[in-house]
Amino acid sequence: MLARYKKMDVCVTPYPDVSSSSEVAGGELKPFPERLFAAPPRIASGSVPGVSVETYEEDNNIWKKHVNAYKKINRLIDSGRYRNILDMNAGLGGFAAALNSPKLWVMNVMPTIAEKDTLGVIYERGLIGIYHDWCEAFSTYPRTYDLIHAHGLFSLYKDK
């Protein structure tokens, strides 16, 4: 069968149903920067398997603690020296949220082989991110990033 005669599959996820026109599909988002640490609607509603509001808050606290430790060791993090940061295994986006600064931005990468797909959580936090298979070339040159964070990445790919 020719490709032009093949029935097309739906590839766009529909918005969740709402009961009135004043409701926001998916859930109300807090204003930025408050939404960096507020539980995103998809976590609050239980849409992300294995992630509860409690585990989300624990993740936030862990990353705040780690980033504070990083800042004690490397005082340049808050100086504006690192403007472009790559998080190679972003998880819930806690590292980027803990770094919150107008002096920098973080590209959050969700590995395609990650156990949990949390890119939507990253977006609902007001952060940016992409999917990527680290066995393939990355679309931007890694040296364009001033700091590369790879927490847990090598464990994901140890059998590749």
UniProtKB/TrEMBL annotation:
Q: Which organism is it from?
A: Gossypium lobatum
Q: Which UniProt keywords apply?
A: Glycoprotein, Methyltransferase, Signal-anchor, Transferase, Transmembrane
Any one Pfam family here would be Methyltransf_29
Please verify whether the record's keywords include Glycoprotein: yes
Q: What is this protein called?
A: Methyltransferase
Stated membrane topology is: Single-pass membrane protein; Single-pass type II membrane protein
EC number, UniProt record: 2.1.1.-
On the tree of life, the source organism's domain of life is Eukaryota
User: Where would you find this protein in the cell?
Assistant: Endomembrane system; Membrane
What's its top-level EC category? transferase
Spell out the molecular function terms from Gene Ontology: methyltransferase activity
Provide a GO CC annotation, any one. trans-Golgi network
